[in-house]
Amino acid sequence: MTLVVVTVMPKKGVLDPQGQAVQGALSHMGFAGVSDVRVGKRIELEIAGHDPAGQATKMCEDLLANQLIEDFHVEVPG
Amino acid sequence: MSATRVAVLRFPGTLDHESAARAVEGVGAEPVFTHHEDTALPQGTHAVVIPGGFSYGDHLRPGALASRTPIMAAVTGHAKDGGKVLGICNGFQILCESGLLPGVLRPNASLSFICRQADLEVADSGTPWTGGRLAGEVLSIPFKHHDGAWFGTPGEARVVLRYKGGNPNGSIDKIAGISNLGGNVMGLMPHPEEAQDPLLGSTDGRVLFAALIA
Fold it and tell me: Which of A65, B70, B76, B149 has the smallest number of CB atoms closer than 10 Å to its CB?
């Protein structure tokens, strides 16, 4: 088994209302100087077999990310 | 002669199938509930309705998991053969996620769940879905959603319905409903199955169901 970590983030330039809401809350709480917040997802996959990173990339393309609005990043932590 | 068959899909978390089936009956057709794990549509299916709800709990993205089920492969084949498909609310999200309609439905700009009656303006009168109403005519149909902001390239679709007045959810070009360029696949966030009876204030939703069997 290999642990593969997929990060899915809203594309830059696509409105992220969740990030904006969190930024607003941080500002109200007194955390100054936060100029941008974007909220995404971290997906951890335990994958067997050959080329786990390649398999995860295919999973991102087919299901885990919607590339109209999201970017993904595949990482195999060493 | 037996009534025209219309498949009404059910996924785990589908909510509005009973209302959709009643609306199908209202136009003289026979609704047939169809399970998400079925690999084929019921024999003799003329058209398909994908009702609203929260299929698979909206996990990952609304409609994402439902769009990858066996029945959606059958719906895709039906649509490619020119068969009619109507997706309502979560059904619209499923159609976008499956690639049968362009774009994607994003969370409302307000991040609030919005539930109210809406005036929808006919934008493209040339599709079957608005029953010959002219561009600019208004249909009164309620909507109820959290993820209703359509995002995409309007030129890749036919814009059938727009919200009249203000933009309730941050949808591109105030889009409430689109069809594919061929006109046989229609998706909208408002709920025409809840605008069927004068007791509920509007019967304007009937034209969309009548289009299924036209």
Answer: B70
Chain A residues with at least one Cβ partner in B under 8 Å = 14-15, 17-18, 21, 62-64, 66, 68-69
pTM of the predicted model as reported, rounded to 2 decimal places: 0.95
Minimal-distance CA residue of chain B relative to A40: B60
Quick check: B190 and B161 in contact, CB under 8 A? Answer: yes
Number of domains in chain A: 1
Question: How distant, in Å, are the alpha carbons of A67, B14, B18, B185 from that of B53?
Answer: 24, 4, 11, 19
Note down the domain range covering A9. 2-75
The C-alpha atoms of residue B164 and residue B174 are separated, in whole angstroms, by 8
Q: Output the tens digit of pLDDT for each of chain B's 214 residues.
A: 578 999 999 999 999 999 999 999 999 999 999 999 999 999 999 999 999 999 999 999 999 999 999 999 999 999 999 999 999 999 999 999 999 999 999 999 999 999 999 999 999 999 999 999 999 999 999 999 999 999 999 999 999 999 999 999 999 999 999 999 999 999 999 999 999 999 999 999 999 999 999 8
User: Containing domain of residue B17, as a range?
Assistant: 5-213
Give how far Cα A30 sits from Cα of A25, A37, A38, Å.
9, 15, 19
Q: State the CATH number of the domain containing residue B16.
A: 3.40.50.880
**CA B135 to chain CA mean position, Å:** 20
CATH number for position A68: 3.30.1280.10
Determine whether the interchain pair A15/B68 forms a contact, defined as Cβ–Cβ distance below 8 Å: no
Q: How far is B50 from chain A (nearest CA, A)?
A: 20
